[in-house]
Amino acid sequence: GEVLKNLNKFYKRKEIQRLGTENGLDARLFHQAFISFRKYIMESSSVSADLHIILNDICCGAGKVCLLGHVDDLFPFFLRHAKQIFPMLDCMDDLRKISDLRLPPNWYPEARAIQRKIIFHAGPTNSGKTYHAIQRFLSAKSGVYCGPLKLLAHEIFQKSNDANVPCDLVTGEERVYANEDARQASHIACTIEMCSTNTPYEVAVIDEIQMIRDPARGWAWTRALLGLCAEEIHVCGEAAAIDLVTELMYTTGEEVEVRNYKRLTPLTVLDYALESLDNLRPGDCIVCFSKNDIYSVSRQIEARGLECAVIYGSLPPGTKLEQAKKFNDPDDPCKILVATDAIGMGLNLCIKRIIFNSIVKPTINEKGEKEIDSITTSQALQIAGRAGRYGSSFKQGEVTTMHRDDLQQLKEILSEPVRPVKAAGLHPTAEQIEMFAYHLPDATLSNLIDIFVSLSQVDGLYFVCNIDDFKFLADMIQHIPLNLRSRYVFCTAPLNRKEPFVCTTLLKFARQFSRNEPLTFDWLCRHTKWPLAPPKNIKELVHLEAVHDVFDLYLWLSYRFMDMFPDAVLVRDIQKKLDDIIQIGVCNITKLIRASQSGAASGAAEVMSEDFPLSRTKRDTRVISGHRGAKSTEPLSVALEVPGEGRAKSLKAYRSAIRQEDLKSHGRGSLANRLLREGLLTQEMLKQLESEWQDQHRNGRYGLASKRDNQSSSKETGKKKK
């Protein structure tokens, strides 16, 4: 008891905490080290002689005028123990130097060796800012365009070659050479992560510079802005980023010339909401912030005898372009577009009026947490600005909301000034992580990243980007034997961790790679069950999109490990065929929705039979509260036996509640249909529910009868029947 009291006294002393900080133990590490140290002393059968003597002196001398020992004397032993559980403490100075991110401009000596001219083209959507930068790009002897999307890079690649300026296309998954002999052209259009900071250019264009604040990808814009070796850097984006870019360039000794642009066509916020899909007009675009709303709205539009094009983020680029082409074609009967905010950049669309189906959107904050909040002014302006594109058949744009209650809030959002961009993103490089691993050879990659971020130092102009996706992949493949550089590459693969099929495929790729077995075209076809048929329902369409992402993943890895992923050409061929199959599905999306609904209805009719009218309520509550995308489900329905008159009253009340629920859903079909459409239920889950309910119902009924007849049954048997 005396030892424990003195240990706790040691922990609380400010001098000890200060010494811990000086030796690399922040508050979190200090606490963890102390808990371990206390456990070691209290639970060990014996401790070292010198520590035993110190503890004895402290305890025996407590309360005496002449102290034999003081709790501070424990610190050397505490620090020695802390270094055993945190090996990094022995090399803390080296690790701090490696993770010092306060001077990113110094990472790019080639760029610092030349005097660059920075020109900021600032303006809203549809102001011609990017057009002027591209004109300078085309007139230069050499140049690089860096965009946020494959679609944008492909557009500049096409424009450049159409203007007789040979230009290569470089994305994470693709290399297309302008010259037939695969000789590199003087101009390159690339996604921003793929730009080279070693190649000299006359002109570089960095598009959508405001994305330098993006919690996940901001580091790529920071790298391009600080590291591109170009005589002229043309930066395009929102005026909200001017101050940050100016400050960043001040640290490199470079001045920024700002050119402001105004919108080329007027944009009007209407005083009335759409309120009903009956009020749609040619050139309308309804913007939704979830795929489920896309399905629902497009189904309702085509129920009114209108054709609509559909664009959302997870569609392949080719399908997006085909849908945009269909909507833009004046001779095509399709005059309505239903889209997510994926239309905010990368597609040229002839839109007359933007209609926000909702003004709340799920987002990921800087901590990697999911939040649902109103769209920002920047997002609203980016999307609304797509209406009335300069050069289209519509000379002015309009914007409104679907619901009257949202209109006033949208006006307030659009009238607010865009928040200034405050900081630029950074991300640890493979070289920095390798240096960490040299000092901490036994640490996992996920732990190395954690330690790096905890020790990293940044000044006010920068922040460390969110690394949750990286850590997720690092933990997923940790058990697979890979060298650190290969492991790092696999963890930076661009995939959506919410897609189980894609994540499982990455795991199989890594396992095969670790065995030094090439991932061949035949292997990939077996894994994806290629060839695939056109989708018959929404679930199959979603799976085809995931397979397309798997092909993207293969191509991405093939440019980093050519020997192990040797069949990129064959995979690209079948990916194009898959793109065509997905296009068929999207063109028939309402048929797929109807097929899904009819399948759900038949399954629901069996499950929701008259035998268990009250079980539906409990099942629905459990399904709705569960998260989307679950691949399996526990028994959700509970059969409630209500005898006689009480059963009739409960049935009546239940049906009334269901009618109220259906009224609240604005007539969007039965509950089972809606759950299936929203991705919360599948046909398999409905069948499983029916089977489980029947088992429960049978066991419950016969179990009760058995209990009445056999009161003397064993306790265990009774439990089982219950």
Automatic annotation (TrEMBL):
Assigned keywords, A-Z: ATP-binding, Helicase, Hydrolase, Mitochondrion, Nucleotide-binding, Transit peptide
GO biological process: mitochondrial RNA 3'-end processing
Protein name per the record: ATP-dependent RNA helicase SUPV3L1, mitochondrial
Residue segments, region Disordered: 691-722
GO CC annotation: mitochondrial degradosome
Annotated organism of origin: Chauna torquata
One Pfam family per UniProt: SUV3_C
EC supergroup of this enzyme: hydrolase
